[in-house]
Amino acid sequence: FYKAAENMNYVTRVKPGRYRLKDGMSNRRLINMLASGTQQPVTISFHNIRLKADFAGFIGRHLEADSASILRLLDSASFVKQYGFTTDNVYVMFMPNTYSMYWNTTPEKFFKRMYANYEKFWTPERKQKAAAINLTEPEVIILASIVDAEALHDSDNPIVAGLYLNRLRIGMNLDADPTVIFAHNDFTIKRVLSKQLLINSPYNTYMYKGLPPGPIMMPSINAVNSVLNYTKSDYLFMCAKADFSGYHAFAATREEHEKNARAFRQALDDRDAK
């Protein structure tokens, strides 16, 4: 191999990458493949990754670029600004999907690829729907991240989205438990307690009106589309159904909501759940 590489002047034509070697390959064929940079693409699929740091780690395990270099760009205000984002909301750019790319794709090229896919997702029709609900494209995805964290069943997503849009429309706090859990950075919390609502964070939607500054997770495409195609209703309140099905009981009035909430609390007491 060494003699063949010398004769074919491979030492001046080395191209890094991820290559697939096959049984019976001749030296000449192998060297031509390496010198031409004919790589085996990497297939990367991601969805529902909660934090930027987790996402950087995931990408670092699949590409040559390490997680630190990915995270450094995510946290660089000047870098993300060129794409129209802040370090808080840049995570909305990464749309769940399956991607094929080369192993030695640089962090900068990776971002460029992700932004191209983000732009492709935002068709004129989707942009019109976002404008109709008075949300920017990043805001739609931020709300979708809350909807996705709140709703266990996809069929609930459009209803939950419509409820939150109703609250935004009248200036009511979103009061979304998943945002409080995110603010605490403690994803072992199963039931949000009154003391946990006191955390002073822009992600605490019990304390601050409007949407948080960034997404609380990577939402599914279904959740994003559920915000854009929300179910119209008068609902302002919801709580888990007392049958523990994972669905929500929705209400338009506080009185009706309190009735639903009492039924759920009683069901918890009956199960001795804390």
Relevant terms:
single chain; 274 residues; mainly alpha; two-stranded antiparallel ribbon; 4 strands
Describe the structure.
This protein is mainly α and 274 residues long. The chain is built from twelve helices and four strands. It has helices spanning 2-7, 27-36, 52-60, 67-74, 77-81, 107-121, 124-132, 137-150, 157-170, 177-184, 221-228, 254-270, and strands spanning 42-46, 97-101, 237-240, 248-251. The strands form two sheets. A two-stranded antiparallel sheet has the order 1-2. β3 and β4 (248-251) form a beta hairpin. α3 (52-60) packs antiparallel against α4, α8 (137-150) crosses α11 (221-228) and α9 (157-170) crosses α11 (221-228). It is elongated and about 85 Å long. The N and C termini lie far apart (68 Å). The mean pLDDT is 94.
Biggest sheet: strands, sense, closure? 2 strands, antiparallel
Tally of alpha and pi helices: 12
Can you write the helix and strand succession as a string? HHEHHHEHHHHHHEEH
Order of strands, widest sheet: 1-2
Oligomer: single chain
* Uncertain residue segments: none
Beta percentage is 5-15%
Give the number of DSSP strands: 4
Q: What best-fitting shape do the alpha-carbon axes yield? A: elongated
